[in-house]
Backbone:
């Protein structure tokens, strides 16, 4: 199981295949490649046409020893329709590192140390642009974390940790607290993400400097320059890197003024 997200460029590949079909075919290819790599690592040298899989409840393939299901080759063949459009990815204005990188996945369950890393990217103080806007958003919008909390309470399928991580700031009028349940809520449980929402999340999570001036944030040219200069180095931990890729995509979406489609 995974969260799928797509940078909705409205490009020719998206239009030619349709977003839903493109994501479905790419998901199939990712699953087939992952299954084949796993079997090869275990010493299985059979040809893909000889390897039969069953689709597990969570949507992923599992090797089948009873002749039921679908072959790996059939999955590769189904996904081959992507080859008609992938050459166009080279000219994508998003400048993504590989073909079809507009579609990515975040695997469940989300490990506990990933939540700790993510909540640690919030501003250390509310006395900055990111802190001020985060406090305003928490006060004005319904980011209460309830959708995430329901998934967490259902067992370890979605989250490794039974309790969310949190951040607390002292301020006049009483402390302000935010949990990783709320952070995941504003990322993955508000529907598709408009460019303005992507901008705010990129700011909250430090893709943009927390202390960027409001003047620069409101000025189109200055904001675009800041987003173009934004960097988030690759993380050596693959679980953290999955979330880091999403944070980078937020910055790209805000810079190009396009939404991100979310399918959790």
Residues:
């Amino acid at each position: 199981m995974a969260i799928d997200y797509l940078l909705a460029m409205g490009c020719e590949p998206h239009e030619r295949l349709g977003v839903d079909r493109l994501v479905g075919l790419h998901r199939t290819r990712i699953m087939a490649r992952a299954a084949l790599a796993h079997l090869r690592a275990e010493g299985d040298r059979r040809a893909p046409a000889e390897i039969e899989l069953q689709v597990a409840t969570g949507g992923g393939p599992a090797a089948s020893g009873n002749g039921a299901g679908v072959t790996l080759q059939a999955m590769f063949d189904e996904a081959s329709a992507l080859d008609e459009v992938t050459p166009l990815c080279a000219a994508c204005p998003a400048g993504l590192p590989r073909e079809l990188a507009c579609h990515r996945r975040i695997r469940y369950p989300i490990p506990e140390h990933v939540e700790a890393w993510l909540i640690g990217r919030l501003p250390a103080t509310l006395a900055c642009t990111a802190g001020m806007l985060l406090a305003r958003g928490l006060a004005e919008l319904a980011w209460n974390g309830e959708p995430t909390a329901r998934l967490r309470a259902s067992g370890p399928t979605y989250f490794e940790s039974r309790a969310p991580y949190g951040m607390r700031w002292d301020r006049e009028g009483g402390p302000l607290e935010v949990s990783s349940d709320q952070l995941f809520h504003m990322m993955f449980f508000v529907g598709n993400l408009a460019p303005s929402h992507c901008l705010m999340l990129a700011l909250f999570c430090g893709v943009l400097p927390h202390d960027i001036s409001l003047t620069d944030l409101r000025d189109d040219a200055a904001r675009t320059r800041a987003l173009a200069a934004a960097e988030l180095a690759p993380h050596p931990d693959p679980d953290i890197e999955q979330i880091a890729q999403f944070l980078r995509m937020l910055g790209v979406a805000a810079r190009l003024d396009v939404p991100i489609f979310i399918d959790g």
Summary: The beta strands are 2-7, 52-55, 61-63, 70-71, 103-107, 166-169, 176-179, 260-263.
